Amino acid sequence: MGDKAKARETARKAGVPIIPGSEGPLRTSSEALDVAKAIGFPIILKAAAGGGGRGMRICWGEGDLQNAFETARHEAERAFGVPDVYLEKYLERPRHIEIQVFGDTHGRRVALGERECSIQRRHQKLIEESPSPALDDATRKKMSDAAVSLCDAVGYVNAGTIEFLYQDGEFFFMEMNTRIQVEHPVTEEVTGIDLVKEQIRVAAGEKLSVPTGDFRLRGHAMEFRINAEDPVTFAPNPGRIRELHLPGGPGVRVDTHAYRDYVVPPHYDSLIAKLIVRGKNREESIARGRRALEQFIIEGVKTSIPLHRAILNDPSFLRGDLSTRFMETFER
Length: 332
Known about the structure:
Dna Ligase, domain 1, 3-stranded antiparallel β-sheet, 8-stranded antiparallel β-sheet
């Protein structure tokens, strides 16, 4: 499932809806063009072994394809050591919704609800929340059942995430992350399950401690990725943290490795903290998020905190009117 092209084929065989695209890695730009013509533009090229938005290129027409194909292959090889890319139909305004799954060595596999991850830039997530404001119980069950059936098909063991694109009432398998993810605290807050502890239990050969029967999410949670970067240009901003004050109070959690006088290095991901808030509903989560972001003080490096404050005042965000292209039209 870590190879995205193979994962698509596995999902297709398991009866999980997939986005129209190539059946496997593409060898040449001519082969890619044939597939693109068959399914129609726009299309997106993706690295088969990729993640984090690397090796991805959107093509709006035939004239873009050859250059995009070579660029995607080169970037994929540099980032992952494998140049393979595949192709999918590009959905223009989808939501990115993922299902948290877990499997143990005793054959039990469960879905632990969804996370809405549509607020992102260059395929890098900025805000995650659970439950999604777009899903009703029936759709949530369909997506969860599809995720579990895919895990059953491969005998999956461990924490994992099945990622879907959702548009016009339909969902399509995109990829699987075969690991714990940055946004796992969102699920922990609405389920009460310590996912990392559960991983250790499963690795030790124990059974999942998740209760059997109908599983319901409790309340609403959001996570804000606090990055050491300019909130307008998104340029990384490494340096020394001169002052650090973490927010607190009911429903507020901060996961961080940073401290006063910590030096943010230029060599790695710019994420320095995760702010997680929980409320009885989405409105309370937003209110607690606003308060916590006002209290969150980091001096010495620029951070994404002002950006998150602005997003929490955006009318479309407040309505839950989201898509992966939200940031393209967002006005600060």
